[in-house]
Amino acid sequence: METQSWRSPGGCLAKLQAALGEDALQEFQRDGELSAAARHAAYGVAVARGYCRLLQVDLGDLQETLPARLAAVACGTVGEQLAVWTDDAVQLTQRWDAARGRSERTRLCVTLLENRMDAWAAFVELDEAAGDPATGAGPESRDLEPALDDLAQRLAAFDDALSAQ
Q: Which residues touch 38 (CB under 8 Å, ≥6 apart)?
């Protein structure tokens, strides 16, 4: 089980530095299709930066917002995750009934709440990137605002699924 300590002020900056050090992020330096690892790395950066923002951690030299392409890819990946998480929330009752014991049931609920927190953190960071003029004027930048609108709708659907449980 992954430790959750990085979601604290003391740990999120280290998590961000590790996320920014992912080799797969080098794919963003060239044109072309991105690997699943690069998309996952973009997602990791957005979530870690978002937690740092939510927890008001001084980012120092890492203060600049995400580049438009990375933000757009992260936005898409968060959206994909939200679809999976929404399905998980819808199926919670069945998964709860099939769970073996209190510990597994607790984990089902905690995981959904952690996923919601991750989505919130990523959204905060992606919204920041979309509103920053330094993000650029390329096609990814123009696509970011509609992608954020879609993400907000997916977040609302996830919230509805959680509330129904």
A: 24, 25, 27, 28, 73
